[in-house]
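Appendix B. One record, verbatim.
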Amino acid sequence: MFVTAGFNFIILWSFHEKQIYVQGQNRFGQLGVGINDTNHQPIFIPIDLSNRLENDSIKQVVASPSHVAILTANGNMLLAGHNGHGQLAMGNKTNAFKTFAKMAYGPATQYFNVAKIAELAVGESFTFCRDANGQLFATGDNREGQLGLPGMTGTSHCEAVPLPLHIRKIVAGYQHSVALMPNRSVSVCGRNDFGQLGMNHVNSLDTFTASSSLQAPLLPIHEFIVDIAAGGDSTFVLTSEGRVLACGNNQNGQLGLGDKANRLVFTAVDLSGVLREGEKIERIIAGTWRTILMTSEKRILTCGSDLYQEGQQHTTFQAMDCAWLHPGTTITDIALGCGCSAFVASDNSIRVNNQGTSIQIEARHPVKLVETSLVKSFETSLESSQTLPSLPVEMWRQIFSYLSISDIMQAAQTCKELWNIAIESRVRSLYPQQFLSVAQVIPQIQAIYAHLPAAQQKTFREKLKMLLARKLYDSPQLSQTISQQTIAL
């Protein structure tokens, strides 16, 4: 089990699977549930990608604050969310894609026919893909030069990035990009107002350029870069000697340098007081205002802070209290988003913190997912029918009494008549002695629904399905109708 995080949303996924599990904010439709919803989705719900993947499966999932990209085993890309800068590689700048769609192959098609995509990285409004040969491609916003495509403000197709050498790895921050080169040097481009490019100045760069501060005496000739990580406006590298070097935004102490001063050049992080004898850093996870290091002894070191995050602010790395772990287990994956974090343990227990709410998901009691007969009906019925699913009147009464008027308005806004009757149904369910019964209202809803265009019918179904999935989870009224499914851990 792996985890990915964006702006107040979290995604759980596994290799070779055909579905993901999403939780949190869905303002731009990035969760792929079919609607964009500014409300917080408190539970994990499954997103079935079988119809998009067909004979393919998931290899990697990455997330920006507002869009999500999925790399498949066969080297294809599925994307959803904000597309105002062309970051979804669809050949247009349609504002948002609310379900996952395949990348539209443009000028880069000839390259992908030779070597399939091997790695993805996303920034605030841009997307990178690296093919198996190390060629880098980019799409989306380039106003700060973050794509490494000089002379362009952006693109909506994947464009080949001019680099003298093919790359080993690509990572992206908010509006800057970092590439690990075959010779183990680091090239950077994009926004640099906090010094995140490590160039000893604050000017943006529109082409990938070797970071000038990663050289002797900071980096001796026998020591080389083995890994890279990018936070919102910060950059980290891990050396062959297990040292961590950092630069950029340090306003929350996220560089771990003992203060809150930004760094324009890469600076060595002193870990002598926290590492045990023989212990080394193996991985860096950089968030917007928080950074985590995973050690060779599977300990977690953290510094900085984040809105709603667990723990206090530290300007140096401190060992994280992982008391929630079961004896004998360790943390295997971590995601740091903006306002959220998630940890996966070796027994597949999961700890999530999103907007200040912590959720502990035990392996023996896996993630609970709503799968009511009602929600299932909206997913599977009406393929060829023009009537709403036949549901017991009492269930309709409970639906309209449990959902708020604003909820019903969201679901029914595709049609004024449907919206009006839905609100009337809400009132009638609360005061049945004064108004028509729900049994008399449902035929009216069905009649109006039957005359809606297919697109409006689909929108209504998807919105109502999402609302019910969110609302019914904790509903004691419908506890008898909820059958809980589990993630295959």
